[in-house]
Amino acid sequence: MTFKPQHFNVWMEIPVSDLDKAIVFYNNVFQTELNLVTDMGPNPFAMFPTSEENGVAGHLYPGKPADKGTGPTIHIACPDTLEETMERFAKAGGEVISDPIPIPAGRFAYGIDPDGNSIGMFAVNS
What we know:
alpha+beta, 2,3-Dihydroxybiphenyl 1,2-Dioxygenase, domain 1, four-stranded mixed beta sheet, 9 strands, 32% strand
């Protein structure tokens, strides 16, 4: 039997060295408002919002990121064009490390956030 769920990816966690600074970075780049949660575990974390209550998302948490660019890549939806998101990514202190890459569903680019996490910025075809 082959396991084929509706969504294979169900959650993401991005470790960051300074939660407050990371919240500012991700809010600025992805033009969102992460929700700080302080009452659900041993450490506070910041959740990415979704339009639906049970939307697939994730959070930032105080942790030790992998060495620069060596961890898994998390792809995050762009709020506008890929180029605008890439510009904000670099301006906010991240490093854009690729040109836009087209795929059938849209385009994406790779970046390294200020903590060294590998981040994909993804824009769907419209």
